[in-house]
């Protein structure tokens, strides 16, 4: 009987460590996961590298400058174009590229100057026509003496008034188009400055004869062959 009790006691003692280990494993599985803290999120964000497009950044800055002062963005593009180098450290800007950039800057102010001159002249003529119409309305349709439009009949004065009003609207619209073209050109030029084009890139055009398959034979037609060398 004592032997049976001893064997039973040893069996129970051997099972106790396994039971304790299973209880610890189940408690570890049931333990809730720790929420991600702010510091850990910031650490993970710093490990992720964000790509910044330099062409987009430069285009945004150039557009802001041209929006403030037309042509300022083109001058910034010109300064980048002059200092642009290839992998060997050589200047890549060609003479016609620099001349085109400066020419566009000058073209903005030439267009603005011409539009302003046209607007001043149009408004002066419009005021003269209105003054003549008011004089005739106050003097029983009698023409003024020595006026610039005194020799014109009444209907032509009305037509001239409508014409000058339409011209004024066209000039204002041309101002908007010139300003928008200034912004678009600044943005596109700034983006293109950051595109790498190999200096060995060549394109050629030459005439060629293209065979065409007909029902009863072959015939040939003139064509143009384009060759692109990368």
Question: What does this 3D model show about the protein?
Answer:
The protein has 230 residues and is mostly helical. It has a domain of 143 residues. It contains six helices and two strands. α3 packs antiparallel against α4, α3 packs antiparallel against α6 and α4 packs antiparallel against α5.
Structure described in brief:
The chain has 230 residues and is mostly helical. The protein contains six helices and two strands. The model has no long low-confidence stretch (mean pLDDT 77).
Beta-strand share of residues: 5-15%
Mean pLDDT: 77
Give the helix tally. 6
SSE class? mainly alpha
> Which value, in Å, is the CA radius of gyration?
41 Å
Which parts are unreliable, with pLDDT below 50 for 5 consecutive residues or more? none
Strand order of the largest sheet: 1-2
Whole-Å distance between the termini? 99 Å
List the secondary-structure elements in sequence, H or E: HHHHHHEE
Labels describing this entry:
mainly alpha; 230 residues; 6 helices; 65% helix; elongated; single chain
Topology:
Blueprint: H1 2-30, H2 38-47, H3 54-68, H4 72-83, H5 95-138, H6 154-192, E1 202-214, E2 217-229
Antiparallel strand pairs: 1-2
Helix pairs in contact: 3-4, 3-6, 4-5, 5-6
């Amino acid at each position: 009987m004592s032997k049976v009790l001893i064997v039973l006691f040893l069996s129970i003692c051997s099972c106790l460590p396994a039971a304790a280990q299973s209880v610890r494993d189940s408690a570890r599985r049931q333990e809730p996961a720790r929420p991600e803290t702010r510091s850990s999120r910031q650490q993970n964000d710093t490990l992720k590298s964000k790509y910044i497009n330099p062409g987009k950044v430069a285009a945004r800055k150039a557009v802001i400058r041209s929006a403030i002062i037309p042509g300022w963005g083109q001058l910034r593009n010109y300064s980048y174009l002059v200092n642009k180098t290839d992998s060997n450290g050589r200047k890549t800007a060609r003479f016609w590229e620099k001349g085109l950039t400066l020419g566009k800057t000058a073209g903005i102010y030439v267009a603005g100057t011409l539009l302003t001159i046209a607007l001043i002249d149009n408004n002066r003529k419009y005021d003269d026509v209105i003054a003549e119409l008011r004089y005739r309305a106050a003097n029983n349709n009698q023409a003024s003496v020595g006026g610039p439009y005194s020799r014109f009949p009444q209907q032509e004065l009305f037509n001239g008034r409508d014409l000058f009003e339409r011209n004024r609207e066209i000039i204002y619209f041309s101002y908007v188009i010139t300003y928008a073209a200034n912004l678009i050109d600044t943005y596109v030029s700034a983006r293109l400055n950051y595109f790498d084009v190999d200096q060995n890139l060549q394109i050629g055009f030459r005439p060629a004869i293209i065979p065409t398959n007909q029902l009863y034979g072959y015939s040939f037609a003139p064509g143009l062959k384009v060759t692109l060398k990368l």
